[in-house]
Design brief:
binds nicotinamide-adenine-dinucleotide, 13 helices, Rossmann fold, single chain, two-stranded antiparallel sheet, Dehydroquinate synthase-like, alpha domain, alpha/beta, 50% helix
Length: 361
């Protein structure tokens, strides 16, 4: 029997393929815009010149001060620049941090975003914004921040360092795992999420073996698209709540933290979400990653690609477990298994040890 569902698809245009960055001028025109602010910082800003070559004087503002988790004072500078230069479209070129900065501007101004992602974070497919002030990260959903157009060009990801690629891929996997047991999952989203797990598990080992392998990069970016879409169209559970709290309160690096928590969050939910676990195991096996249970299969994948599996290794102090657990439990995420103090303390302790999760379905 088909369970009841709601399938509410946000509208964004996705252009995918090697060399598709060359379409940026056409896509800006399609949006009816002519005064762009280009948001791009870090090493990925090397691709900004390719955007500038196409758009010329239609780029009226450049914002390079991209900071992870979008500090409010930095966002205010970007908002002021957009207003001063009468910008009518924001082009976000880079990882989740660049997209996040563009979203902060869109949230305030309602300007459209054209996103060109260069990591696997998936923010480009969601209407979720995030801002950080006084060590507290606030997030919300607003349709104004969903990028209207997304250009996925795998060639732009070849320069993403191997360790960041692996951790970013695990960040994408986390969206898929939690989407698969989210109450908002529709049958179509379930198929896409399972395909995303397969695509990432099949491609990330090839990316790590040869970061210049464009086929592997394309497959990983395809998986990241499905992951971002899953994040945008379902709800997230205990895993994302933990990462939200740890990122905001202890400033842990976003993607490595996701990688280190995911096997243990999956084990935590194993008994309560057997359908999701079976889908993950099936997708890992289809990808050629032999797995008999989801949590240890995910741990094996992380180890195979050199991604973190230990929370202490990414900067979390085990002495903070009780304090962090209290904040996480107070947030009461919607999750298949009820989120209580003993459970979260156990999950965080296991993540701090980093051993392979065993004996889960
Ligand atoms: N709102 C959402 O839906 C959503 C979803 C996922 C992540 N996020 C947010 O995104 C941020 C994390 O994004 P991220 O993990 O992509 O990190 P990031 O954007 O900070 O990128 C990670 C590192 O990789 C570098 N980099 C990116 N692309 C590169 C490339 N092609 N070549 C070389 N270096 C490159 C960056 O300069 C940076 O040093 C966090 O703030 C997180 O909260 C938001």
């Amino acid at each position: 029997m088909t369970a009841p569902f709601v399938h509410d698809v946000p509208a964004s245009r996705v252009v995918f393929g090697n060399g598709r960055l060359a379409d940026v001028a056409i896509e800006v025109e399609r949006l009816g815009c002519s005064r762009a602010m280009l948001v791009s910082g870090g090493p990925e800003a090397q691709y900004a010149v390719l955007v500038e070559e196409q758009l010329g004087e239609r780029i009226v503002a450049r914002f390079t001060d991209v900071v992870m988790h979008v500090p409010v004072p930095v966002a205010q500078q970007a908002i002021a620049l957009a207003a001063r230069d009468e910008v009518d479209v924001i082009i976000a070129l880079g990882g989740g941090s660049s997209t996040g900065m563009a979203k902060a501007v869109a949230l305030e101004t309602g300007l459209p975003i054209l996103a060109i992602p260069t990591t696997y974070a998936g923010s480009e497919m969601t209407s979720i914004w995030g801002l950080t002030e006084n060590n507290r990260k606030t997030t919300g959903r607003d349709p104004r921040v969903l990028p209207r157009t997304v250009i996925y060009d795998p060639e732009l990801t070849v320069s993403l360092p191997v360790d960041i690629s692996a951790a970013s891929g695990m960040n994408a996997l986390a969206h898929l795992v939690e989407g698969l047991y989210a109450p908002g999952l529709s049958p179509l989203s379930a198929m896409q999420a399972q395909e995303g797990v397969r695509a990432l598990a099949a491609s990330l080992p090839r990316v790590v073996a040869d970061p210049s392998n464009l086929d592997a990069r394309g497959d990983a970016l395809y998986g990241a698209w499905l992951a971002g879409w899953t994040l945008g169209t379902t709800g997230m559970g205990v895993h994302h709540k933990i990462c939200h709290v740890l990122g905001g309160a202890y400033n842990l690096p976003h993607a490595p933290m996701h990688s280190a928590v995911l096997p243990y969050a999956t084990a935590f939910n194993a008994d309560a979400a057997p359908g999701a676990m079976a889908a993950i195991v099936g997708a890992l096996n289809d990808a050629g990653m032999p797995a008999t249970n989801a949590a240890s299969g995910i741990w094996d994948l992380a180890r195979a690609i050199g991604a973190p599996t230990c929370l202490a290794d990414v900067g979390f102090d085990v002495g903070m477990v009780d304090e962090a657990a209290a904040i996480i439990v107070a947030g009461q995420p919607i999750n298949p298994r009820s989120v209580d103090s003993d459970g979260v303390v156990g999950l965080l302790r296991a993540a701090c040890v980093g051993a392979r999760p065993e004996n889960t379905p």
